[in-house]
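Wait, mind explaining this?

_____
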Amino acid sequence: MNASKLIEQFEKFAPKSIAVDHDPIGLQIGDVNQDIHKVLVTLDVRPEVVDEAIANNCDMIFSHHPAMFRPVKNMDLSIPQNAMYAKLIKNDILVYSAHTNLDNAEGGMNDWLAEAMDLRNVEGLVSQGIYNDNEYFMGRIGDLKEETTVYEFAQKCKEFFNVDGLRLISHQDDHKVKRVAVLGGDGGKFYSIAQEKGADVYVTGDVYYHVGHDMIADNMSVVDPGHHIESICKPYLCEMFKEWSKEFDWPIDVIESNINTDPYQFI
């Protein structure tokens, strides 16, 4: 089928207009009017993921993180990233990325993260403005089923997000936790909003060293399980695309990438 059908349907769910300004979302490589038969869903577009797509005869890659986040200055193929782009083109693989529009979408990335922690009474965290009479938010805030401590909650986050380790920033490990804010990716700069909205603990990735000092000074506990927890999007997107395939009678297969693209190891 024509790739534009899947893209148009997805952009009804997560419009480009709700993405953060200058976020390089959308078509990365290829032609939206090309025919597709098999879609690989991934968090990141890395050389090993492209090899996986080729091995599985996929003609489209749908990613959360943009494949071309930084502009290419030349096409020197001795550079691994450039060689990857060339391989995608050579194999006629279309690449489409949905980043902050998926983060901000209702029922999207941050709702999936909140669901992983079984949060109740979930609300939006950081307002991103109003589009088509709907207010969109980056991040979510809600309540745990049962009160716990900062340290116990951090331990549970390893289970929630299937990580071997994480960073805990806390002024008091035994502080009681009930209300939790979460923002996938790099959300350290929004911790004060989480605090203003009554969060006892904030879950986000990529917290900077000096921001961590500020969090402690402001008596805010933060759990940093890393950026890769956003891989939670893969099964959700696969299920969504498969449901649409049945609903609209699309002759496509959808598979989830099995490649772990987390660059970090805990040793």
Summary: The two ends are 46 Å apart (CA to CA).
